[in-house]
C-alpha cells in the first residue's frame, strides 16, 4: 500500500524500519575497511546472533537485464548502527553474489544508468572536498560499469534523499532538501550557515501539517532537481535550477526518454486537510500541468509506459465517516490527461504498478489473505493473472525482453530475498536467487488457523509454534496485533519477529482482524469507526481458536501490539482479564487527545469526525475510559520522536495506570521514533519484553535488563 496517514506503519519495512534515509549497511572493521556480510546461518537464541543476519532492501535491474543489485544491511564495527552496502546478484541464479561497495558510511538506493553505471546515494566523503568541510550529506554517486572508483555525480547542501533515472536518455531527477528562499545551491548553503552561526533553530510554519513520522516539515522543503545530461561529473554545478514544484515530495517518475516528469504533489484543502495530485512537467521547456487531480482522491506511485504515451498510478479515495479509503489503478493518457480505472473489479488494493516491457500489461502487488502477491493485468482486456502463490513481493523489476520479473520476496518465515518470476505464469512459487540474508533452520514451524465471527466473516491468522510444542508440552501463547490498522501480517518483520519468541518457547498468534487489508472492502467496513467492536471480538475469537488447540496452554497467555496494535492492546487490557500480561508499544490511549496532536490530524477526522462537534466515536472507542477495569500487568513502550502517535499518549497512559495501581512498567526511548531503529535500543526492547513476559507468563522472577 502507498504510505499514507491511514497506515500507522508503512509496509514492507526497510532493514530496521522506516522512514529515515534508506538503511545503509556494511560491516566495518576496526581499520575502517569493510568485511563481507555472512551469506547464511541463523541466530534467534541471542540478540547478538540475531543482529548478524544480513537484511536486504531495494532492487535494481540494469537496462540490458544482465545485472541485478540490492542493498544489504549489516552492523557497523561498533555494533551501534546499520550500514548498507551494494551487492550484485546473478539474475540467472548461477553465480554466487558479490559485494560492490565498501565505504564506512554505506550505500543505498541503487539504480542503473543506460550506460551501465550504477548510481546510488551515500554519505561517503568526496575526495575533492576541502579537508575542513562539514560532515558530508547524502549525495548521488556513480560506480563505473567496468572497474574503477565511484564518482560523485550530484549533491545539495541539504542532502539528496531519492532519485530516478530516465532509462534511455540517462537524465537523473533527484529530491533534495532546500531552504524556501534559496535560488541556488550556494544560496541554500549560505542560509543554512547563517542560521547555524547565530544559533537559530526556530521554524516558522504558515500551513498545516508541521510534522511527518519523526521529523519537522521545515525549515527546508523537498524540491526536485534534474541533471543536464547523464551526470558524468561536476556535482552541484551540473544541476539545473529547482523545478517548479514546491510541495514536500518524494513520489515521482521520469519517462524513458527523459522528457517528462510525473510528481505526486500535495495540495492544501479548505479544512486544513491535504490531497495529492499528479503534476506532469516538461523537463525541456519547464511547463507544468496537473494531469490527475480531483477533490476526494489522492494520486500516487506514478509509472510511465515505455513510450511515454501513458501513465499508470494508484488512485486512493479519501475515507469518510461511512466509507474507508479504497485503491485502484488509474491509467492516464499523457497527451490529453484523460484517465480511467484499470482495475474496477479487483477486490483488493493494488499498489506499486510498473509497465511490462512492451507496454501492453501492468504488474502490481496487493495484500491478499495473508500474502502480498504479484499480479499482471492486460491493459486492453483487463484480464488479471496472479503470478505468485505465497509471500509478500516488493521492488518489481521487469526484464527488458519481457520474459521475467524480478522482485524481493519475504514470507512470515523468511526474510526478503531476490527471486525471478516468469512474466505470465500463474501462481508461481519461485526459489530465491543466491544472495546474502538467508536464514537456516527456524526454531519452530508456521501454520494457519481461522475462525468464523458472529456475522459470518472468516478471520484467519498465522500461528508460529515453537519447536517441541505438543499436547504433552503445550506452549504459552502470545497474541500479536498488527499496526495499520489497514495492514496485514504477510511478511517477515525485523522489528516484531515471532521467531525470537519461538526460540524462547512461546507460540505466537498473528491474526488479521476486521480493518485488515487483503480480505475485501466489506472486511474493512466491519471495523470502520468501531475500533473497539469487531476488531476486538475478532481477536478474541481467533485467540479462542488458538487456545483450543492441545499444543497451546490457555493458562499462560499475553497480548502485544504496536501502533494500532498498541491501541488494541490497551483496549484488550480494559475489556478482558484473560491474559497474564499486556505489552503496548507506540499506542493510542486517549483518542480525543491523539486526534489533534498526530502528524496528519485531518485523516483521522475523516473517520472519527470533528472532535469538537462529533464526539460519539471518540468516546465509544477510546481505551482510556476503561482504565478502572484494567487488572492485567502492562509494559508501556514509546519513543519521544514518534510524531505519528505522540509521546503524550504514553505519558498519559503511564500516569493513568500508576494512579489506578495497575502493575506496570514504562520503557522510554528519548531518541527513537515510531519504531526502534538502532541496534542497541532494539536489543533492549526485546530484552525488556522477554523479562516482562517471563515474569508474568512463565512465573519467573523479574530480572531487570542490565543496560536499563
Q: In words, what does this structure look like?
A:
The chain has eleven helices and 38 strands. The protein is globular, with a radius of gyration of 25 Å.
Low-pLDDT residue spans:
1-6, 10-41, 229-247
Q: Please, how many helices?
A: 11
The N- and C-terminal alpha carbons lie at a distance of 37 Å
Please give the radius of gyration in angstroms. 25 Å
Instruction: State the major sheet.
Output: 8 strands, mixed
SS class: alpha+beta
Q: Based on Cα principal axes, name the global outline.
A: globular
Strand proportion, as a percent range, falls in 25-35%
Order of strands across the biggest sheet? 31-32-34-33-35-36-37-38
Task: Please name the CATH architecture of the domain at 444-696.
Answer: 3-Layer(aba) Sandwich
Strand segment count: 38
Q: Would you tell me which CATH topology of the domain at 444-696 applies? A: Rossmann fold
Q: Would you identify the CATH H-level superfamily of the domain at 444-696?
A: Alpha/Beta hydrolase fold, catalytic domain
CATH class designation of the domain at 444-696: Alpha Beta
Helical content band? 10-25%
- Arithmetic mean of pLDDT: 91
Brief sketch in words of this structure:
This protein has eleven helices and 38 strands.
Keywords:
708 residues, globular, alpha+beta
Show the helix and strand layout:
Blueprint: E1 27-28, E2 34-35, H1 47-51, E3 55-61, E4 68-75, E5 82-89, E6 98-99, E7 107-112, E8 118-122, E9 139-143, E10 151-154, E11 160-165, E12 172-178, H2 185-197, E13 211-212, E14 215-216, E15 221-226, E16 252-254, E17 260-268, E18 274-282, E19 288-292, E20 297-304, E21 310-317, E22 327-333, E23 339-341, E24 351-355, E25 361-365, E26 374-378, E27 384-386, E28 392-398, E29 404-411, E30 414-422, E31 444-452, E32 458-466, E33 475-481, H3 498-502, E34 507-511, H4 521-525, H5 534-547, E35 552-562, H6 564-575, E36 581-585, H7 591-597, H8 601-608, H9 616-621, E37 634-639, H10 648-659, E38 664-669, H11 679-696
Parallel strand pairs: 33-34, 33-35, 35-36, 36-37, 37-38
Antiparallel strand pairs: 1-2, 3-4, 4-5, 5-6, 7-8, 8-9, 9-10, 11-12, 12-15, 13-14, 16-17, 17-18, 18-19, 20-21, 21-22, 22-23, 24-25, 25-26, 26-27, 28-29, 29-30, 31-32, 32-34
Amino acid at each position: 500500500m502507498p504510505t499514507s496517514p491511514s497506515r500507522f506503519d508503512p509496509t514492507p519495512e526497510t532493514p530496521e524500519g522506516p522512514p529515515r534515509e534508506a538503511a545503509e549497511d556494511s560491516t566495518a572493521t576496526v581499520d575502517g575497511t569493510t568485511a563481507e556480510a555472512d551469506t547464511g546461518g541463523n541466530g534467534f537464541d541471542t540478540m547478538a546472533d540475531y543482529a548478524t543476519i544480513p537484511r536486504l532492501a531495494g532492487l535494481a535491474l540494469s537496462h540490458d537485464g544482465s545485472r541485478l543489485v540490492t542493498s544489504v544491511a549489516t552492523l557497523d564495527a561498533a555494533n551501534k548502527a546499520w550500514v548498507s552496502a551494494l551487492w550484485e546478484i546473478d539474475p540467472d541464479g548461477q553465480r554466487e553474489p558479490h559485494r560492490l561497495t565498501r565505504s564506512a558510511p554505506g550505500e543505498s538506493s541503487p539504480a542503473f544508468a543506460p550506460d551501465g553505471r550504477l548510481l546510488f546515494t551515500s554519505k561517503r566523503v568526496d575526495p575533492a572536498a576541502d579537508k575542513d568541510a562539514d560532515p558530508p550529506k547524502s549525495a548521488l554517486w556513480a560506480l563505473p560499469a567496468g572497474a574503477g572508483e565511484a564518482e560523485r555525480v550530484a549533491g545539495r547542501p541539504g542532502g539528496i534523499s531519492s532519485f530516478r533515472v530516465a532509462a534511455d536518455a540517462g537524465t537523473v531527477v533527484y529530491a533534495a532538501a532546500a531552504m524556501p528562499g534559496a535560488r541556488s545551491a550556494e544560496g541554500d548553503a549560505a542560509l543554512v550557515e547563517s542560521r547555524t552561526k547565530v544559533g537559530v533553530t526556530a521554524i516558522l510554519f504558515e500551513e498545516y501539517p508541521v510534522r511527518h513520522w519523526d521529523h519537522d516539515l521545515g525549515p527546508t522543503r523537498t524540491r526536485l532537481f534534474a541533471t543536464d545530461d547523464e551526470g558524468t561529473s561536476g556535482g552541484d554545478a551540473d544541476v539545473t535550477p529547482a523545478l517548479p514544484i514546491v510541495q514536500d515530495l518524494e513520489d515521482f517518475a521520469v519517462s524513458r526518454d527523459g522528457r517528462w516528469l510525473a510528481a505526486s504533489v500535495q495540495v492544501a484543502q479548505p479544512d486544513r486537510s491535504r490531497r495529492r495530485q499528479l503534476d506532469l512537467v516538461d523537463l525541456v521547456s519547464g511547463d507544468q500541468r496537473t494531469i490527475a487531480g480531483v477533490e476526494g482522491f489522492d494520486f500516487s506511485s506514478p509509472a510511465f509506459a515505455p513510450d511515454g504515451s501513458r501513465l499508470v498510478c494508484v488512485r486512493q479515495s479519501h475515507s469518510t465517516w461511512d466509507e474507508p479509503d479504497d485503491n485502484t489503478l488509474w491509467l492516464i493518457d499523457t497527451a490529453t490527461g484523460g484517465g480511467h480505472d484499470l482495475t474496477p473489479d479487483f477486490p483488493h488494493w493494488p499498489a506499486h504498478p510498473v509497465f511490462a516491457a512492451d507496454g501492453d500489461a501492468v504488474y502490481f502487488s496487493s495484500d491478499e489473505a495473508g500474502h502480498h502477491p504479484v499480479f499482471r493485468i492486460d491493459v486492453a482486456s483487463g484480464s488479471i493473472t496472479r503470478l505468485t502463490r505465497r509471500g509478500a513481493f516488493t521492488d518489481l523489476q521487469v526484464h527488458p525482453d519481457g520474459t521475467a520479473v524480478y522482485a524481493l520476496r519475504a514470507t512470515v518465515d523468511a526474510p526478503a530475498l531476490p527471486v525471478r518470476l516468469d512474466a505470465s505464469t500463474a501462481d508461481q512459487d519461485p526459489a530465491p536467487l543466491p544472495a546474502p540474508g538467508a536464514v537456516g533452520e527456524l526454531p519452530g514451524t508456521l501454520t494457519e488457523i481461522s475462525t468464523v465471527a458472529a456475522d459470518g466473516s472468516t478471520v484467519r491468522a498465522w500461528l508460529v509454534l515453537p519447536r517441541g510444542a505438543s499436547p504433552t508440552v503445550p506452549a504459552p501463547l502470545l497474541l500479536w496485533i498488527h499496526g495499520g490498522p489497514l495492514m496485514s501480517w504477510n511478511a517477515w518483520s525485523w522489528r516484531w519477529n515471532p521467531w525470537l519468541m519461538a526460540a524462547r518457547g512461546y507460540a505466537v498468534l498473528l491474526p488479521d482482524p476486521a480493518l485488515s487489508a487483503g480480505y475485501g472492502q466489506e472486511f474493512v467496513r466491519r471495523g470502520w469507526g468501531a475500533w473497539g467492536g469487531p476488531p476486538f471480538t475478532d481477536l478474541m475469537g481467533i485467540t479462542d481458536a488458538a487456545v483450543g488447540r492441545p499444543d497451546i496452554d490457555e493458562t499462560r497467555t499475553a497480548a502485544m501490539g504496536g501502533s494500532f496494535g498498541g491501541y488494541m492492546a490497551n483496549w484488550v487490557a480494559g475489556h478482558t482479564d484473560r491474559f497474564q500480561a499486556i505489552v503496548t508499544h507506540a499506542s493510542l490511549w486517549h483518542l480525543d487527545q491523539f486526534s489533534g496532536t498526530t502528524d496528519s490530524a485531518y485523516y483521522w477526522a475523516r473517520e472519527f469526525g470533528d472532535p469538537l462537534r462529533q464526539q460519539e466515536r471518540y468516546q465509544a472507542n477510546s481505551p482510556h475510559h476503561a482504565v478502572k477495569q484494567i487488572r492485567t500487568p502492562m509494559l508501556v513502550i514509546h519513543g519521544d520522536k514518534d510524531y505519528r502517535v505522540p509521546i503524550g499518549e504514553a505519558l498519559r497512559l503511564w500516569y493513568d495506570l500508576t494512579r489506578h495501581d495497575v502493575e506496570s512498567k514504562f520503557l522510554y526511548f528519548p531518541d527513537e521514533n515510531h519504531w526502534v531503529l538502532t541496534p542497541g535500543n532494539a536489543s533492549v526492547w526485546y530484552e525488556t519484553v522477554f523479562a516482562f513476559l517471563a515474569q508474568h507468563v512463565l512465573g519467573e522472577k523479574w530480572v531487570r535488563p542490565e543496560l536499563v
